[in-house]
Specification:
The chain is an alpha/beta fold. 39% of the residues lie in helices and 13% in strands. It folds into 2 domains: 280 residues, Type I PLP-dependent aspartate aminotransferase-like (Major domain) (Aspartate Aminotransferase, domain 2, 3-Layer(aba) Sandwich); 135 residues, Aspartate Aminotransferase, domain 1. A 7-stranded mixed β-sheet has the order 1-7-6-5-4-2-3, with helices on both faces. A 5-stranded mixed β-sheet has the order 8-9-12-11-10. The model has no long low-confidence stretch (mean pLDDT 95). Bound molecules: pyridoxal-5'-phosphate.
Length: 427
């Protein structure tokens, strides 16, 4: 693999390189275990003295190829695939923070992440404070505490469609020796590579665009490499001996990728949350066409946003790629190739009119999913975000009339015609 290849090429070619006479297409290693000729080989694997596979809860060759592909696309040093996007975010944080620690997160987040942070991780003793994504650097710095272990945000928030000023958050976090974790699910590495702007860890729900066909739930955590865990002084778990691995010191034995090795051998091992080989296979197939799909998602979403904006039945449209949108400048900076395939709008007549439109759509299906190649719609207030209080919903950017459209890759004329006929039902 050549590391100067462009994303379009990496999406197709990276991760799996067959040898002479081997399968052209990534094979499925649907095997829990791997055979060795002698005891010492396996002992060395357990001691992390040599690389290899022995049990698919820790690592598997099919999953490994997907991890290498996403690592190449994001421009990082290593990645660990997980059972879901939720697990990617949970494990990324738990790799840095434990009971008694603090994490600072942007308010505009995916509903499942809000629940994870405000309930499950809090019950585990990790305190999470929220900060507005448009907070200035001084406000971010003021919210950081002596026990803060991570700053967390989404590149393009689901569903608020707020674009993160990655450089601003990275600068504030780095001043205190704290890594910035960015959930890059919506832009994908085709539209934005957060590492280029200072993020240290990137997470994905691969369930979304990376799979793109809505077949497989999965997640991934990618490490940029080069974060100075020692200088930070906040991470003894990285710089002091790990008793569960005979005193291994991650920053010494795995200096190039201590975050990923620790995540895999502590958390994936102990909680048992790897991505399944079959899901990795499906996700890899989807990822091969990621670059061309993202192009079409972006052009279709912009065209639908422009159509809705001038429609007499529509009260407002949010799409960061739309000139005049509050997020337009940030989107131009961080995702100049396009602002992804998700837009939100409100129908004149509010929530009830919105329901009429959703029920009247034919091509666009009502699905609790986003970012696949078929156009789908969702009403977050009554679906994905219904476990949140009204205040939490508003903080996450969800108004009662908001309809989220995941614009697919069908012909734009058919998508527009479908929304037009459905909107006219409200007249
Ligand atoms: C869907 C989603 C998640 C959760 O991913 P799952 O694969 O459903 O567990 C996390 N972050 C964002 C931005 C998402 O859209």
């Amino acid at each position: 693999m050549q590391n100067n290849w462009k994303p379009e090429t990496l999406a197709v070619q990276a991760g799996y390189t067959p040898g002479n006479g081997e399968a052209r297409v990534l094979p499925l290693w649907q095997s829990t275990t791997f055979k060795y000729d002698d005891v010492q080989s396996v002992a060395d694997l357990f001691d992390l003295k040599r690389e290899g596979f022995f049990y698919s809860r820790l690592a598997n060759p099919t999953v490994d190829c997907l991890e290498r592909k996403i690592t190449a696309l994001e421009g990082g040093v290593a990645a660990v695939a997980t059972s879901a996007g939720q697990t990617a975010n949970a494990m990324a944080l738990m790799n840095l923070a434990s009971a008694g620690d603090h994490v600072l997160a942007a308010t505009s987040l995916y509903g499942g992440t809000v629940t994870l942070f405000t309930h499950t991780l809090r019950r585990a003793g990790i305190q999470i404070d929220f900060i507005a994504p448009d907070a200035d650097e001084a406000a971010i710095e003021a919210a950081i505490k002596p026990n803060t272990k991570a700053v967390f945000a989404e590149t393009l928030a689901n569903p608020a469609l707020v674009v993160l000023d990655i450089e601003r958050f990275a600068r504030a976090a780095h001043k205190f020796g704290i890594p910035l974790i960015v959930d890059n699910t919506f832009p994908t590495p085709i539209l934005c590579r957060p590492f280029d702007f200072g993020a240290d860890i990137v997470t994905h729900s691969t369930t979304k665009y990376i799979d793109g066909h809505a077949t497989s739930v999965g997640g991934i955590v990618v490490e940029k490499g080069g974060f100075d865990w020692k200088a930070s002084g906040r991470f003894p778990g990285f710089t002091e001996p790990d008793d569960s691995y005979h005193g291994l010191i991650y920053t010494e034995s795995f200096a190039a990728m201590p975050f990923s090795v620790k995540l895999r051998v502590q958390l994936i091992r102990d909680y048992g949350v790897p991505q399944s080989p079959f899901n990795a296979l499906m996700t890899n197939f989807g990822c091969e066409t990621l670059a061309i799909r993202m192009e079409r998602h972006c052009t279709n979403a912009l065209a639908l946003a422009e159509f809705l904006q001038q429609h007499p039945c529509v009260s407002w449209v949010n799409y960061p790629g739309l000139p005049g949108d509050s997020q337009y400048e940030l989107a131009q900076k961080y995702m100049p190739r396009g602002a992804s395939g998700v837009l939100c709008f409100g129908v004149k007549g509010g929530r009830q009119a919105g329901e009429i439109v959703m029920n009247a759509l034919r091509l666009a299906a009502i699905v609790v999913h986003v970012a696949d190649l078929r156009t789908g719609v969702l009403h977050p207030a009554s679906m994905t975000h219904r476990q949140l209080s009204d205040e939490e919903q508003l903080a996450a950017g969800v108004s009662p009339d908001l309809i989220r459209v995941s614009v697919g890759i069908e012909h734009i004329d058919d998508i527009i015609a479908d929304f037009d006929q459905a909107l006219k039902k409200t007249l």
